Amino acid sequence: MPGKRARRHFPQLSEFERGLIIGMKTAGWSTRRVAGQMDRSECAVRNYWEQWTREGTHVRKTGSGATRKTTRRDDRRLVRQALVNPTVTRSTIRADVGVAIVPQTISSHLAEANLKSKRTFRALPLTPEHRQLRLQWCQAISMWNVTDWQKVVFSDESRFVLGTDDNRVRVWRHPG
């Protein structure tokens, strides 16, 4: 649409920038001039100046996020359970800890401990003996004709998940 300005996203004001806004506004600069000088929106400068004149402080308010439901001890128990039994599920961990937290919270607490949920290996690495047996099998069937191949049933290993759970075992591991 013509005439509509693109919305720009800015990081939070640093303590230095907040001090500059106070100094410039105290010196009598207009909000527009301060915003242009600092490459910030006029709204941000105006809101900050109003906070300064209303509260008399330039300290940024703490976030209004949810309070932490688990203690440090609970967090250590979460991590210990994931390390002792890597295939443990988030719902099992939640039941063992006994705190009403959502599975995403468990994942984020384990991520703080540098643990990620990963799928296990699809297949174990082949040993030299396994490789030798596979090679012998391939050499044995390399001379098959069309009638021999018509007796073989091929299966597709594709997985289709209609629900939310794919029933694959996941393990908690450190990256790398």
TrEMBL record:
Gene3D superfamilies for this protein: Homeodomain-like, Ribonuclease H-like superfamily/Ribonuclease H
Compartments (UniProt record): Nucleus
Domain of life: Eukaryota
GO CC list: nucleus
A family per Pfam: HTH_Tnp_Tc3_2
Domain Transposase Tc1-like: 75-139
InterPro entries reported for this sequence: Homeodomain-like_sf, RNaseH_sf, Transposase_Tc1-like
GO molecular function: DNA binding
Full protein name: Transposable element Tc1 transposase
UniProt source species: Trichonephila clavipes
Gene: tc1a_547
